[in-house]
Amino acid sequence: MNLLVRGSRCTGIILGLLLAVLTALLLGGRAWAQDLPVMARLVYDGAPLTVGQPAHFTLEVIHPVDTVAILPALDADWSSTIEVRTQSAPTTRANGDGTLTTSQAIEAAIFAPGDFATPPVRTVVSDRSGVTVNAVAAPVPLTVDSVLTAEDVEPRDIKPQARLGWLWIALGWIAGALLVVLLAAWPVRRILQRRHALRNRTALERVLDELTAIGASHFPENGQYKEMYLAVSHSVRSHLEREFGVDAHERTTSEMRSALRGLPLGQEIPRRLLTLFSESDLVKFAQVTPTPASAEALLVEARALSVAISKAHAADVARRAQMQANTGAPAANQSGAVR
Q1: Secondary structure of residue 102 in the 3-state scheme
Q2: What's the fold here for domain 39-145?
Q3: pLDDT tens by residue, 122-160
């Protein structure tokens, strides 16, 4: 009887110590978010803008040392009036005060005169334990002037001594106006075609474009393995969200394990996804430095997984459509909701 009582007391002491350690880890993981600054801002270079002229911005995130800032991949149509042309690879520098600054150059253009504002830009800062904090860069107001001046719309060089009748003068103006319209319509048509093509990309086309851009950024050549692995993981998680609606960015790798079980992905795809996310965590948080060959293999695997995810989504859509045709009622998706 004495042995049973002593064993119960030891078990209670051990459980209490484990609970205290877990509580300390959880509180410690969030301490940096309370004690050190996390700030995002979008800085415009201030150059005067005209219609179609590039506008240059710098997205900056100030965050504590030993954390990573995740900058978003902006859509080509940043808003209904602002088009993103280029977005550079993120770079990180030390500030010497216990914080880092992660920045990225963005080039955009507006194709109409007037007053505008950039959309808010949402960034994420993550620590080694997977705790995340959102930082939003406020909108930046912009004024875009027309390329035409008052002198451009005033008739010039119409001299009475030319002895041209009013009909010929009118015909000349009409022909000139038509020529201006035709010349202006060609580049505008090309721009609209490009914007239409970008807007109508499928989820698979979009993630493959993102991965191609990551590969073209030459992260391994610059020693930026952490930034590359972070970008690849971010693109694959975004692809999961677009195809299946799962909240992949707000979950840690261990939390993604249970989330993937509820998706119609079979067994092989979740296993490979968790391997990719775990390798990215090792590089981001454990300071593991991969080889250039490993980095290239990561991109190849990310592309293959993206294709597999889209095929699984298409198969699930076809299955539910067939179920609806057979039963005459809306089929339920993998979570049980009626679609």
Answers
A1: strand
A2: Immunoglobulin-like (2.60.40)
A3: 999 988 877 888 899 999 999 998 876 656 556 555 555
